[in-house]
Amino acid sequence: MGNGRIRAALPTAIAGLMTWVCLSSPAAAQQVAVTPNENLVADGLPPIPASLIEDVRKYSEARTAVMVDWHPVRREVLISTRFGDAAQLHSVAMPSGARRQLTFYSDRINGGWYQPTRGDFLVFSKDVGGNEFYQLFRLDLATGDVTLLTDGRSRNDTPLWNRAGDRMAYTSTRRNGTDTDLYVMDPRDSKTDRLLAQLEGGGWAPLDWSPDGSRMIAMEYLSINESYLWLMNTATGEKTLITPKGGGEKVSYGSARFSADGKGLYVTSDQGSEFQLLRYADLGATPFKPLSAHISWDVESFEVSHDGAAIAFVTNEGGISKLHLLDTRSGKERPVPALPVGVIGTLLWHRNNRDLGMTMMSARAPADTFSLDVVSGQLTRWTESETGGMNPSTLSEPELVKWLSTEGAQISGGQRAAPGAIGPALARRRPTSSAPGRARWACCKYSPRGGATSRGARRRRGGRSESARREARTPAPRRRSTAPGSRVLPPATL
């Protein structure tokens, strides 16, 4: 095996080794050297010292506490975290409070949703053995009783409560095992389950109920570059296309929410733009008016407060999340206090319209649950997850830098000072296409979710599921403004 092939195999080999090492018993550390099992071919690698097992183990034991939901009546959060091998649902009654475990399964819980007016029960989603045939269950919080709501065989996904808390929409493949039809039920009684709309394709999902519950916005997802929004009657299942098909431009819609009066829609899309922009339009009116055109970055997520007075949205600015608050009445942004540099995941408004919950992670902290008081500007940390024995303060924080490639395209990345190294080093990734006979390296964003998501990058990649769209992003050159506080390096000559 040549040196080039050995170098190419190293990332895969090391990843496999770390997985194997972390699953090995502590007794293996008593051995002099470790021999990988038959599932990992290690050709040209030096002997692996057994002491590496304990050295590496701590890097796999950091936990996370992802925000799942707010309790609708009390100021409590529902989180997903693990004390064993699989993430389960826990409730936290106060910031830094004890995590009270609610579910106890060998398989991870895929999501959980409180009944949205009283919170006396919740619905959760779970598969078996990672087969992704998710089933919905009702958990009675007073008794701990669990009831299966779906058929136990098909894939049931994207559950969505209406405002009144008496109906939940979800998609299911039970009709033919392929198409994701739309169903509605009252989770208090699984016998109320009914087919709302028979649909074609596997990319359908409900996005939002209208305030009065008579209509619903559903997305038809075809690819990372093409999706459509439909307005659906929740009594008859009759659907009307909101975003026209045909024409020379394929448009990608990220999400959609009704306005507080139910007469308009807030959406994110890349129509006529290199980036996903936050937009608004009255129902039946086109085109959508851009609300974030002044920001030359993708809007990755947004949520409208329950009273409709504010929109919280997150932009991906060179791999770093930035939170924005938009006043829907004035159309102007509200000031947001400085947040830790990192990645913002979940966004959830409490029904008090003051507390904005979120999941945040950074170079020195795993994913944890926070809330921001949008009136006072106070940031509250609800959980502080364990880091496997590591001291977070010793972990290196990246500096956002930008430089020009040999083709003149601007590239951004995270620069870290390696302990003991002479000068900082840039983390690098696989080569991307460049001039014939020459490799051009793209710098890895320190963000675990990837990097640039501009329209051009999406056009080159393609994709399928919404989760894959969020998690499988690969770095690509940015061609717009430099993020505040970043440095620009001279053109690369790699």
- The percentage of residues in β strands lies in 35-45%
Tally of DSSP β-strands: 36
Question: How would you classify the quaternary structure?
Answer: single chain
Tell the overall outline. globular
How are the strands of the largest sheet arranged? 3-4-5-6
Uncertain runs are 1-15, 20-29, 421-453, 456-494
Query: How would you sum up the major sheet?
Result: 4 strands, antiparallel
Task: Determine the CATH superfamily of the largest domain.
Answer: Prolyl oligopeptidase, N-terminal domain
Bin the helical content.
under 10%
> Structurally, how many domains make up the residues?
3
Number of helices: 4
Distance between the termini: 25 Å
CATH third-tier fold name of the largest domain: Methylamine Dehydrogenase, Chain H
Structure report:
With 494 residues, this protein is mostly beta strands. The chain has three domains: 1-60, no CATH class; 66-381, 7 Propeller (Methylamine Dehydrogenase, Chain H); 396-494, no CATH class. It contains four helices and 36 strands. The strands form ten sheets. Strands 3-4-5-6 form a four-stranded antiparallel β-sheet, with no helix packed on it. The chain has a four-stranded antiparallel β-sheet with strand order 7-8-9-10, with no helix packed on it. It has a four-stranded antiparallel β-sheet with strand order 11-12-13-14, with no helix packed on it. Strand 12 and strand 13 form a beta hairpin. Helix 1 (3-23) packs across helix 2. It is globular, with a radius of gyration of 24 Å. The two termini are 25 Å apart. Mean pLDDT is 82; it is low at 1-15, 20-29, 421-453 and 456-494.
